[in-house]
Design brief:
The structure is a single chain. This protein folds into two domains: 2-40 and 58-280, MetI-like fold (Orthogonal Bundle); 313-555, P-loop containing nucleotide triphosphate hydrolases (Rossmann fold). With 659 residues, it is of the alpha/beta class. The chain has helices at residues 2-13, 15-43, 69-104, 107-121, 125-136, 140-167, 170-177, 182-219, 230-238, 246-280, 309-316, 362-369, 396-406, 424-435, 440-453, 459-463, 472-483, 502-519, 530-536, 563-570, 611-615, and strands at residues 318-331, 334-347, 351-355, 378-380, 383-386, 389-390, 407-410, 490-494, 522-526, 539-544, 547-553, 621-624, 627-629. The strands form two sheets. An eight-stranded mixed β-sheet has the order 7-8-9-3-10-11-13-12, with helices on both faces. Strands 1, 2, 4, 5 and 6 form a five-stranded antiparallel β-sheet that branches. Helix 3 (69-104) crosses helix 6 (140-167), helix 3 (69-104) packs parallel to helix 10 (246-280) and helix 17 packs parallel to helix 18 (502-519).
Length: 659
């Protein structure tokens, strides 16, 4: 925050900032003091001094009733400025409500609001104000409502754009997983992050509102006698512009100076907000599902004997069951399906890794099982159950508590995983306040305890800090701590170590392993790093072009049979690699989601492809115990590649609930 204050001070010291600040202070002082000091004198009539020119007694002359024009211009500052600010506030409030309505209302109603805003933006604001002034009636109230509502569409469009940019951030997705409602999401997570740009545009809008008010009063449909503002004074002085030009020039100059002050201040503030923003940063039916080869649920790699039959039955019941999962998005040429018929199960205490090149559908699969695919994306599946609850057919309101307390999401970029406008402790406490009914203090205490549980040093002090004061590794620990605010049965980690150095990667992976072992939680780890997955997970799903091409236990990774899996293994260097030889690569590129054709998607990059591979799509078929492969020509024999071991390094101490 000190850096932000420094930027504001630097902006205030700049020529534009200093000039605008000085003008605004002067105008504000006049608005407060002028009516108190000169109010009576400005309204006093003098029939002996009517329509006089400038003199020592009357610097700008007098009007038709002998009133001092200079004093009237000064006194009119309060009404002119107050009405402009009131109209701007009306426009800002109405615009924010319209701009955020699509996020709260049902989809059809939201589209109607968006269409209405788009139509209103097409009309010039002043023309719209004139039209509304006739509807609301002549006078102060009608002009204020007309100008305020006429400015609302521009604020609504800006709010929609800013909200859409924030809605894609990881901390919003984390709040959705935590079960935060739409209104609470809007008030606590979206609006605070778009407030500064809105305020900056409001300062510029105030200058425009000031000009619009002057225009309406000048035309005689704004302020009515005996009240007066700069526009009304300008209209009165225009009749005598040839005999006393100062009577018209003075109120006109006041409008220009005040409008310039607002616009210059907005420009200076925009430079500060723009640098901060740079640093922080409806449709047809979905495509029909294509036939998918029958598959059998994959068994976990690790098995053990259970003395309690009921406990064994509970463990066999999958925490997450996915069958024929498809994710589709609209495209000018039709629907694109980046995830095409993915099926797998995850049992209690099991760690399942999903690997593949960028664009293989790993992250979309994780987002789909977490209910984070937004419209216009469409998710379909023959089965998508979490703890026995169907995620696609259950209403969102009924799923909120289940996902908020039993599913934890760890995102790829720790720097975008938290709301930068709220303290870490309060963000963690929101889960307990929302779902466990704890008081604000009790929820914060629990958040501090969860931060201690993930071994964050000085947890109580850290809980009162903002995300910007954390390192990447600390933020990942805090994100895992947020998942521990409930009772996570499934932890979905979407490339949680990508942005971290090797040492911090190890600590985060150890922490995830401790969470899984101490709470019998399942882990779904998404990664492009085969070594990370091999050292952490019991079972590995290899994805390519939106499909699972191999499902095998980690202990049997050297027995991988799909050519793509073997190619991934060959690209992993080890200590025995020949330094004189170039690193191994997989030739070619994965197909784009809209360019996947029939047959095996890997055929163009595979040295074993045949004519059958180009025309028929292979389904997952058994290739050994707990091993399935989708290939017409699976390889035999052990593969070279990464050294694997099941499970991460054991923790130094037991991990779990602290009381």
């Amino acid at each position: 925050m000190p850096r932000q204050r420094t930027k504001w001070l630097a902006a205030a010291r700049s020529p534009v900032g200093a000039c605008s600040a000085a003008l605004l202070v002067l105008i504000a002082a006049l608005a407060v003091a002028a009516p108190l000091i000169w109010g009576d004198a400005a309204g006093a009539t003098d029939t002996s001094a009517m329509e006089q020119g400038p003199s020592g007694e009357h610097p700008l002359g007098t009007d038709s009733l002998g009133r001092d024009i200079f004093l009237r211009v000064l006194v009119a500052t309060r009404l002119s400025l107050g009405l402009a600010l009131a109209a701007t506030l009306i426009g800002l409030v109405v615009g924010v409500l319209l701009g955020t309505a699509p996020s709260i209302l049902p989809r059809r109603a939201g589209r109607l609001v968006t269409a209405a805003v788009n139509i209103a933006v097409a009309f010039p604001a002043l023309l719209l104000a004139l039209f509304l002034a006739v509807i609301f009636g002549v006078g102060l109230t009608g002009a204020m409502l007309a100008i305020g509502i006429a400015g609302a569409p521009s604020f609504a469009r800006l709010t929609q754009t800013l909200a859409a940019s924030v809605a894609g951030r990881d901390f919003v997705s984390a709040a959705k997983v935590a079960g935060v409602g739409r209104v609470r999401m809007l008030v606590r997570h979206i609006l605070p992050n778009i407030g500064e740009p809105l305020v900056v545009n409001a300062t510029i809008g105030a200058g425009n509102a000031l000009l619009a008010f002057a225009g309406l009063s000048f035309l005689g449909i704004g302020i009515q006698a005996p009240d007066y503002d700069w526009g009304r004074l300008l209209g009165e002085g225009l009749d005598r512009i040839y005999t006393n030009p100062a009577s018209a020039l003075a109120p006109g100059a006041a409008v220009v100076i005040a409008g310039l002050a607002f616009n210059l201040f907005g420009e200076a503030a925009a430079a500060v907000v723009g640098s901060r923003t740079a640093a922080v940063r409806g449709g047809a039916a979905p495509p029909p599902a294509t036939p998918h080869p029958a598959t059998t649920p994959a068994a976990g790699a690790s098995a053990g004997t259970e003395t309690d039959a009921d406990a064994s039955a509970d463990r066999d019941a999958p925490v997450l069951a996915v069958e024929n999962l498809r994710v589709a998005f609209p495209h000018p040429a039709g629907w694109v399906t980046p995830v095409r018929g993915v099926s797998f199960t995850v049992h209690a205490g099991e760690a399942v890794g999903v690997v593949g090149e960028s664009g293989s559908g790993k992250s979309l699969t994780a987002l789909a099982v977490s209910r984070l695919i937004e419209s216009p994306g469409v998710v379909t599946a023959d089965r998508l159950d979490f703890l026995g609850t169907p995620l696609l057919s259950t209403p969102e309101r009924d799923l909120r508590e289940l996902l908020g307390t039993s599913l934890s999401m760890v995102f790829q970029d720790p720097m975008t995983s938290f709301n930068p406008t709220r303290r870490i402790g309060r963000q963690l406490a929101e889960v307990s306040e929302q779902h466990q009914g704890l008081s604000r203090r009790a929820a914060f205490d629990r958040a501090v305890d969860r931060l201690r549980a993930v071994r964050l040093p000085a947890a109580e002090r850290r809980a009162r800090q903002y995300p910007q004061e954390y390192s990447g590794g600390m933020l990942q620990r805090a994100m895992i701590g947020m998942g521990l605010m409930g009772d996570p049965r499934l932890v979905v980690a979407d490339e949680p170590t990508t942005a971290l150095d090797v040492t911090v990667q190890r600590d985060v992976l150890r922490l995830l392993s401790r969470v899984r072992e101490s709470r019998t939680s399942a882990l779904l780890l998404i990664s492009h790093d085969l070594t990370v997955v091999a050292q952490t997970c019991d079972r590995i799903l290899v994805m390519y072009a939106g499909r699972v091409v191999e499902d095998l236990p980690t202990a049997g990774l050297k027995d991988a049979r799909h050519p793509y899996t073997r190619a991934l293994l060959d690209t992993v260097p080890d200590m025995d690699v020949d330094r004189d030889r170039p690193l191994a690569v997989i030739p070619g590129r994965p197909p784009e989601p809209d360019q996947v054709l029939e047959g095996c998607a890997f055929a163009s990059r595979c040295g074993f492809a045949s004519d059958r591979c180009a025309t028929e799509t292979p389904g997952l078929a058994g290739a050994g115990r707990a091993h399935r492969v989708a290939c017409w020509h699976p390889a035999d024999g052990p593969a070279d590649g990464v050294r694997t071991h099941s499970g991460a390094t054991a923790p130094d101490e037991p991990f779990g609930e602290r009381t």
